[in-house]
Amino acid sequence: MGAGSGGSRGSRRDSTIGSAIAVSYHRHPYTLAAAAAQIDRLSGERLVLGIGTGHRAGVETLLHIDWGDAPARLRDYLAAVRACLDADGPIEHRNDHFHIGPRAQQVPHKAGSDKACSTGDQNPH
Description:
By secondary structure, the chain is an alpha+beta fold. The chain has three helices and four strands, in the order βαβααββ. A two-stranded parallel sheet has the order 1-2. A two-stranded antiparallel ribbon has the order 3-4. The chain is flat.
């Protein structure tokens, strides 16, 4: 922490590292899980991962992806990310929007706590 921030140099170990909000339409859930797991491992399991839908206009206009049922897609995305983070071996996960496995793949480091992936309903409006 910088001077004047009110914190001490020794408090880094107790702090968390936040991702802001990773937009679910930008990356495959396995790709996000693998990157998040690596950051979480390198930071001593201090990552707090935020995942959301983004904004409808940006998704449809810039990415040319149909917004569809964004809340349902986000729930499926979070379930897929969680499956990747919780896996101890090859990943096999399927839901309405994503299929991961069963081919050989590197498994993301298993997160030490629920902080690695936070799930919850998001309001896309």
